[in-house]
Every structure is written in C-alpha cells, then in structure tokens.
C-alpha cells in the first residue's frame, strides 16, 4: 500500500522528514476494522510527534490521526460495523496512523460517517470533535441539554482552530452557552463569529480586562486551546466560583491552581487519546460520541470545519500541511484527499 511515513524526526522543510513509501497492508485484529482511507486531516499533534529529536525508528512510522474511509475488512469479534460501511475516526496514537491507503483501527473508537458530508469534509472532524466534546461535557461537566436556569458562559481561548471551531458550535448549539472566543486577526475573529461566538477578544492583549469590558466579572467555564503557560493565570482569575477550567495544551511549568481553592473551582486536562491509549472500560464512548455528532451534522445543527484541501495524499502535500500548521496562522482544518 502507499503510505507517507518517517524513520527519522526532522524539520518540515527536510525532504526526508516525511517520505512516500510502499508498505505491507496491515491485518486487522479481533476488534479491528481495516479501512480504505479516502481523506485525512492534519492536526498540531502530527507536527509535535514529527518534531526533530534524536531518534531513529527501526520500522517506518505512519503519522496521522483524522480519517474518513470505507471498511474493507473486519476482525473476528467486530460487531459494530460491516464491510462497505463509510466511517470516520481519529484513531490511536499508540498505533500506526492514517497517512496510508489502508489502516487498522479499533471499532470502539470509530463512528459512522455523516451521510451529508464528503470524505474530505468528514475527515476534518473526528479528533477535534472528540476533544471538544470530552472537554466540555465530560471534563468540565457542561450540561447537555442545559437545565432551565440562567444562561451560563464560556471563554474559549483559541477559537479559530480546529478544536475551537467545534467547541464553539457545541457550546452554542448543544449547550446553549454564552460564548466569548479569542482570536488575534480579523479573519480568525470572523470565523469565530460564523461558528457561533457571541463576542471575540484578542488573546494577545489582556484577557481579564477585555472580558470584564463585555460585562462579565466571571465566566462559568474556560477552555484553553492555546498556550497554557500564558493563559492559565487569566483563566484562574476569570473562572466563576464552582466553575471549571480545562486545557488541552501541555504546560512547560506547573500551573498555579491554588487560587481556585477559595472558588471551589476545578482545573482539568483533556487528551482525546486517553481512552484508546489505556484501553479504558468506556472506550466505546468515542464510537457513540462520533455517531451522535454525525446525526447533528446530518440534521444541519453542526457543520464541518474544513477550510483548506490538498490533493493527492503524498509526502510533499503532508509536509506542506505540517508547515502551514507550524506557521500558527491556520484557521479551521487542513484536509488531504485521494492517494
């Protein structure tokens, strides 16, 4: 099969950072699907994994954790899918990724592709959707649907990225929150408004004063999608008593959460690979989550966050997608389609 893979961890501009290869087609295990990959998306995690380091892989490593395709083979214990089913999924960071013609993936973290979307539009969704959903509804405890009470609020730091685009939609359309998103450019601010943000502030300026100027002393939830080191102090100051902060971005120094004690507020992390990585008892929740989102997409409640498409899927185009993400200027998702 065709694949884009690496054996050394090199800068994006290096032609050997990602290479076109021909590799054996994998064989599914008992709970695995064999998927013919039709479209893939690239995320910041791809660039972080590929980042230069002194390590050489004994066998080619395939990156990529967002795909849409068709089931072409199933393991002996598969019960959720059949050959021919169109699917979408983010996969498992401990296994080979989706930058290949065929991939094996555990059925419990796979969803049925939204019928109304092309493979490219669907491939933009899984990783960011799972991340946003788990952060909002499972980590921070946002109610779905909300009870009839005062309308709660959320500050989403980094609203124009892939996760931010989905978090804004879920917060607006499913949780009915008041949404303040952050963006630093007119085009990224417009993107946040398009997806449902009620107000947009600039994360390169003082967040506390900007949120206060909007009439909010506190916000019930803060979702940090960019630079935890920089934004955690503002999040701790702005979160409401008994509120919640969640970050998806690793920190380089300890996060000072001591001020949260008097507020009885909480700070938590979200990593969407946790369930697959540790084979948790509730691993199948990602299957149900993706199916529920597919229904919301097909009902027109949510929409894809696809913004750029490259074709075909080859090393040159995957390197280009990595470079665009590393620029820090991307809005929405970058998808590649067709080998």
From TrEMBL:
Coiled coil: none annotated. One of its GO terms (molecular function) is zinc ion binding. SUPFAM superfamilies: GroES-like, NAD(P)-binding Rossmann-fold domains. InterPro entries: ADH-like_N (IPR013154), ADH_Zn_typ-1 (IPR014182), ER (IPR020843), GroES-like_sf (IPR011032), NAD(P)-bd_dom_sf (IPR036291), Zinc-ADH_QOR/CCCR (IPR051603). Belongs to the zinc-containing alcohol dehydrogenase family. Quinone oxidoreductase subfamily. This is Zinc-type alcohol dehydrogenase-like protein. PANTHER family: QUINONE OXIDOREDUCTASE. Keywords: Metal-binding, NADP, Oxidoreductase, Zinc. Residues 16-336 form the Enoyl reductase (ER) domain. The lineage of its organism: Bacteria, Pseudomonadati, Pseudomonadota, Betaproteobacteria, Nitrosomonadales. It comes from the Bacteria.
């Amino acid at each position: 099969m065709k694949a884009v893979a690496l054996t050394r961890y090199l800068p994006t501009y290096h032609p050997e950072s990602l290479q076109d290869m021909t590799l054996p087609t994998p064989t599914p295990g008992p709970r695995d699907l064999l998927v013919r990959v039709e479209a893939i998306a690239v995320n910041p995690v791809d660039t972080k994994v590929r980042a230069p380091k002194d390590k050489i892989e004994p066998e080619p490593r395939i990156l990529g954790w967002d795909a849409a395709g068709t089931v072409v083979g199933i393991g002996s214990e598969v019960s959720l899918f059949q050959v021919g089913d169109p699917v979408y999924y983010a996969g498992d960071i401990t296994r080979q990724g989706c930058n290949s013609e065929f991939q094996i993936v555990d059925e419990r973290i796979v969803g049925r592709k939204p019928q109304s979307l092309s493979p490219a539009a669907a491939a933009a969704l899984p990783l960011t959707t799972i991340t946003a959903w788990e952060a909002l509804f499972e980590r921070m405890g946002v109610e779905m649907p909300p009870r009839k009470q005062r309308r709660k609020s959320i500050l989403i730091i980094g609203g124009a990225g892939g996760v931010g685009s989905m978090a804004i939609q879920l917060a607006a359309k499913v949780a009915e929150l008041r949404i303040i998103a952050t963006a630093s450019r007119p085009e990224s601010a417009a993107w946040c408004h398009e997806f449902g943000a009620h107000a947009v502030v600039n994360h390169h300026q003082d967040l506390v004063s900007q949120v206060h100027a909007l009439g909010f002393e506190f916000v019930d939830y803060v979702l940090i999608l960019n630079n935890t080191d920089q934004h955690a102090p503002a999040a701790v100051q702005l979160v409401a008593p008994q509120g919640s902060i969640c970050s998806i971005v690793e920190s380089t120094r300890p996060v000072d959460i001591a001020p949260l004690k008097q507020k009885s507020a909480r700070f938590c992390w979200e990593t969407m690979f946790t369930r697959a990585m540790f084979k948790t008892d509730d691993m199948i929740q990602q299957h149900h989550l993706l199916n529920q989102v597919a229904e919301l997409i097909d009902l027109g409640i949510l929409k894809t966050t696809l913004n750029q498409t490259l074709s075909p899927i080859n090393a040159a185009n995957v390197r280009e997608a990595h470079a665009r993400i590393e620029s820090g200027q991307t809005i929405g998702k970058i998808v590649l389609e067709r080998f």
